[in-house]
Amino acid sequence: MNKYYWLIPILPLMGAAFNGLLGKRAGKGAVTFVGLGVVFGSLLLAASAFLAMKATGDHRLVLNYGEWMATGSLSVPFGLVIDPLSGTMMLVITGIGFLIHLYSVGYMHEDEGYARFFSYLNLFVFFMLTLVLGSSLVLMFVGWEGVGLCSYLLIGYFFETDFAPDAGLKAFLTNRVGDLGVSIGMMVLFAAFGTLTVSDILTQAGHLAPEVGFGVLTFATLMLFVGATGKSAQLPLYLWLPDAMAGPTPVSALIHAATMVTSGIYMICRLAPVFSLAPITMDVVAWVGGATALFAATIGLVQRDIKKVLAYSTVSQLGYMFLGLGASGFAAGFFHVFTHAWFKALLFLGAGSVIHAMHHEQDLFKMGGLRNKTKITFITMFVGTLAIMGFPGTSGFFSKDEILYLAYLKSPALWVIGVIGACCTSFYMWRLMALTFWGEPRDHHAYDHAHESPFTMTVPLMVLATGSLLWGVWGIPEAFGGHFAIGEFLKPALTYGQVHGAHGHHEGPAVLLACISTGLGLLMGFLGWSTYKKGPAAEIAFAARHPFVHDLLLNKYYVDEGVERFLLGPIRWFGNVLWKLFDVIIIDGVGVNLPGALARVFGDFTALFQTGRVRNYALSMALGAAVLLYVFLK
Amino acid sequence: MTWLNSHPLTFLVFAPTLLGFLIMALPHSLGRLSRLLGFMGALAVFVLSLAWLLGHGGTGATIFIERAPWFTLVGLPVDYHLAVDGLNLWLVLLTTFLVPLTMLGTWNSLKDRIGTFAALFLLLETGMLGALMAQDLFFFYLFWEAMLIPMYFMIGVWGGDERRYAANKFFLYTLSGSLLWLVALLYLANKAGGFNPVLMGQAASALPFSVQCWLFISFAVAFAIKVPLFPLHTWLPDAHVQAPTAGSVILAGVLLKLGGYGFLRFAIPIFPAAAMHYAKPLALLSVIAIVYGALVAMVQRDIKKLVAYSSVSHMGFVMLGLASFTVIGTQGAMLQMLNHGISTGALFLLVGMVYDRAHTRMIADFGGVAVKMPVFTAFFLIVTLSSIGLPLTNGFVGEFWILNGAFLSGFGWGRLYASLATSGVLLGAVYMLWMFKRVFWGPENKDEDSGTHHLHSDLNAREVAVMLPLVVLILWMGIHPRTFVAVSEAPVANLLREANAPPVRTFVLKPAVHQAPAAHEAGPEAHAAKPAAHEVHQ
Lengths: 634, 538
Description:
The structure holds two protein chains of two kinds. Chain A is mostly helical. Chain A has helices at residues 7-21, 23-26, 28-55, 84-107, 114-133, 137-155, 163-193, 198-205, 216-231, 240-243, 249-258, 263-270, 272-276, 279-300, 306-326, 330-357, 375-389, 395-410, 412-437, 444-449, 455-470, 485-494, 510-532, 537-545, 547-554, 559-607, 614-633, and strands at 61-67, 77-82. Chain A has 27 helices and two strands. A two-stranded antiparallel ribbon of chain B has the order 1-2. The longest helix of chain B has 32 residues, at 327-358. In chain B, a hairpin with a 2-residue loop joins strand 1 (64-73) and strand 2. Chain B is mainly alpha-helical.
């Protein structure tokens, strides 16, 4: 089978090409068949490759397909690496990706751009697979920018509207700010290691001592982390993700929850040994992650758009993942990527199903009482909510608990931040559930027409709900009688090339901490549910009493306005100054046209002497002769 | 045919001129026939150049050479010396490719004197090919100046409302740079006893360093105007905006490249020490050009002017790559020159296509074009992505090499400048995608006077046929760049070795303490311990 594995990323690319070039003429049936078929084919091949990888001694499958851009000392092969880390991601991308493709058949069936949509979605799968499988940082960067492109195209999918193009542009450009960091990080790593092939970098890194203070690797990893904050929506580059909800809901589920936004975490895991050499970077990662987890969760408390709540929730959950990484829990962070992919995709698709049922109504305050009308959606979302709040036994419980435990070992302050964030999470999720499914319908017209979604949409919900419930078994920590199997599984990838073993865990009161955080979370969840189960009246009253707090949260701390006013505005102003003042007046006016004008004035002046009158010429000749005579005879 | 076998370059260079004169002899009433003749001729030149130049297999060494003593200028021998080698092969092919493509792409753009325009176009092709192939500096100078004349008329006669100002500015700007250069050229030729660059290089190395510097500066200014390098760029926006589409495409696609090529072919090899001495100011100006061009492009209201300023930014990358004096950076500059020719050429063609329909190029006049012209939008998007350097398009590879080359550069400024220049990649996305959003996305602009309102038809078969090869090239160059730069690798490495370029600068990493240093030297990771030896100019 080895010789077919190149098709894992290429099949979706072929699907994208077909749907993009011929899809409109071929008809919806063909688009569906090709669009889903290529991802399913890719999934089967990925499964086969995963098993083949597990069968190898060192859990590593390296496939090379020639040279891409060699010159001088640089060599970048078209190479794929399948190891536990990339293998798991590959299965998540193709597996959850396939479910979301299936869901989209129902969700997008009335849309005119059906073929275009599936073309972009297939293209996304191609780039995402390139990102995780690429054997070098450059190839990873291909995927990195490529998924950014697809994200841009899909956010701006409804391009005839006013807001979608803006959101798409914002997403791309914010990501590009991060990519700047990745570019610089790659340059530094290339200058330090002489290669950009990941395995070669890690092999060399295995022989290095951790940096004391701010060294080359600290700088390089910080730059890469800047890229991660862009792609994975962390402070301060998180701004684009909430706006990205302008895209169709399946896109929000696949790209802006389950896969693309976890790229930053994936990259850090990929380079875990290098990041481990830079303690300062690790501190920054942990604190930025923790701060984002809390910050975004507070904004999520008051958002009225169902997708916006989930978007801020995603930002917050990504923060937890970084918190885990920064606490040296690479496996824990990645475990949360894995479980989050299931329950957040589920929640988004559930929200999509609700929006679909409510005829494109996204305002929570206008929903209510839907649990009788949309049973499957309700039950599956209920499961998803349990998972995200960390209800004992669900997947989210184990992954979040492991992160909080490691955060506590790094610094109790981080644990406190994490627990407060988790309380907010429980609260806003139960607020969302209560406003959507409980209480009286607040928009009777929409409610009366509400209906459960077709099976192409509910089947993915059910599959994802099952996963959200059960996948936690892969990472039951020792404190709860497990042995954190995923950590063992990922070890060959996370410690690749390292000579000395990783340092052992410190002991801490794991069970006690878990009890505290889970107990508080359950309490806040109940509070959220009981406050909102009758409707949003309590919040409206709160907003009236504390308008400042409410507005501050509702307007996302006015960060967008600040960026526009203090960053983008001045840059545009500066561009105009450069153009109108510097280019047109100084360089072109003073430097170019002024000499030209002077030459003309001088010419006009000398032309005055060319009067054409003989007596003028005679006079000047006489004067000249007199001067000459004086000079020579003096 | 025997003559042709031994003089393929002469044929390629002068056949367009012969055809051009023939067309000029035809009466005005046969304009349509003239246009067809011109196109067929240019196409034939392209096919022949492909067959001859690629047919010989690129090895990097000289592929074709034609050399004979020609005449004596005030006692100095001038050679008739044309050659195609690794440094100019793909630039020559770019030229022969773009000329017929541009003719086809602007088939109906002009209404009057189309025969004369086609003839001038062919004369321009001779000028460009001659300048690219000429190995004797006086010969080169002749072609260099000869290029100006057809372009002057193309802008001045068929241009926009302010065509005369733009044409004069273009002509005088370039000429004033060239005249200083001519003085330096004659001075050095006197010392060297001729215009052969090898002899000139030897003569120059014997001169006092300060004199070398002055001579280099006069060369550099002439070439920098052509590039154009900040702050010598202000002729470009005017020329581009006023020029007819075909003029803009060729101006951006080929003429600007001659500036960068001039550095690589003449200025650096003849004055290596002076070039190295001025590497820092050159790199600084390049970085300024990258950022400045992008910032000014961002606030433009006219799409064509935006593309013109983007050229300043993109050509800044070329100059940064050259100033890095590394193989990676220089190869990046070589590729970036081709990239810019393809991508910016394509952008000007696309802008021309929309201008032909809407008769406006102001961004504010559009909005919602994607609804009306989906095929056009798709092409524009792909070219835009190439322009902003998205991986798997040509733009990425060029910029990546240049930035890494600059970062590794043996000069102290390399790391800082490379890091600053990356902001150009960000700003590139800002101005291109912002413009794309305003023109193509959003609700359809229903205003009666708007540009969008006047768009009645999507691209026709001819226009698609023009864009397709460009898109294929954009992807080809992005996925397999070796096709286009393998041939220049050896000459570039050779050039840098002979110029005594400083060795690359790398970082020294601290190995773990518990390891014996001896084991380090022997192991496969010995690299970390021996940082200086990454890039050997093989």
